[in-house]
Write a structure and sequence with these properties.
Layout lengths: L4 H24 L7 H60 L5 H7 L7 H11 L13 H10 L1 H9 L7 H18 L9 H32 L1 H9 L14
Helix pairs in contact: 1-2, 2-8, 4-8, 5-7, 6-7, 7-8, 8-9
């Protein structure tokens, strides 16, 4: 197994300390006292351990903290995307999915869900291409909606926080590509079958990529922000009966 550089450095530093104290024992023996030579050996011998504690261990603690902060910022940006844009887009697509009923029960996320339930629906979606009947979509309305959100999409793509989230960045690119495809057509009515098939594929790509991202985001809210999860659950784009109004 390939060792990380931190592990290699730690082993090297511990070996250095062992060698230094070994030399001390060979040169001055195990005599006590506070002579200058003993002090020098003790100081030099402790130096690698000091480097290990400060450089490696402290660096790892700071890296973990930094990663946690970046993850929190990243999920804040993703949450903004779904609040302003993603949830409504998924709602449009799911309404045009003739096979949604086969997955609807699995996508009705509840507060009681554990990590196992979220993993189950992820595995269920893997290798599955969701279906879209483009005739059920209002392409003009979809085009207008995407154009209105174009500046918002561009700002998200420029956000350095999302650079570490490759799959979400690819999802944003797919959404932006769909926006460009629709915007490049002057008239969205009376398109030839080949062009309809091409647009259907672009829409389905966004649908396939956006759904797992939504599931990941819902799991994050469920684990960290129950009050935000409650609202997101009541706005579930896959639930035809979803309402933000809490019933008795």
């Amino acid at each position: 197994m390939k060792l990380k550089w931190e592990t290699k450095l730690g082993i090297a530093l511990i070996c250095s300390t062992t060698i230094i104290y070994g030399l001390k024992f060979l040169i001055i023996g195990d005599e006590g006292g506070s002579n200058t030579l003993t002090y020098i050996f003790n100081a030099i011998g402790f130096l690698p351990i000091n480097v290990l504690l400060v450089t490696v261990i402290l660096n790892q603690l700071l890296a973990v903290r930094s990663k946690r902060e970046r993850l929190q910022k990243m999920n804040m940006v993703i949450g903004l995307f779904f609040s302003e844009f993603g949830t409504l887009l998924l709602k449009h697509f799911s309404d045009a999915d003739p096979n949604l009923d086969t997955l609807r029960g699995s996508l009705l996320i509840r507060e009681s869900w554990s990590e196992m339930e979220f993993n189950r629906i992820r595995n269920e979606l893997k290798g599955t291409r969701q279906t879209i009947v483009i005739e059920r979509l209002d392409l003009v309305m979809l085009h207008t909606f995407l154009i209105q959100k174009r500046d918002f999409l561009l700002r998200l793509l420029e956000n350095p926080v999302l650079l570490e989230h490759a799959t979400f960045t690819e999802t944003l690119r797919a959404v932006f590509h769909l926006s460009e495809e629709l915007d490049s057509r002057g008239d969205l009515s009376g398109l030839p079958p080949a062009d309809i098939a091409h647009l259907t594929n672009d829409i389905r790509r966004v649908y396939d990529m956006l759904t797992p991202e939504w599931i990941d985001y819902m799991q994050y809210l469920n684990s960290h922000y129950p009050y935000l999860f409650s609202l997101a659950m009541r706005k579930n784009p896959f639930d035809e009966h979803a309402t933000t109004i809490i019933q008795e």
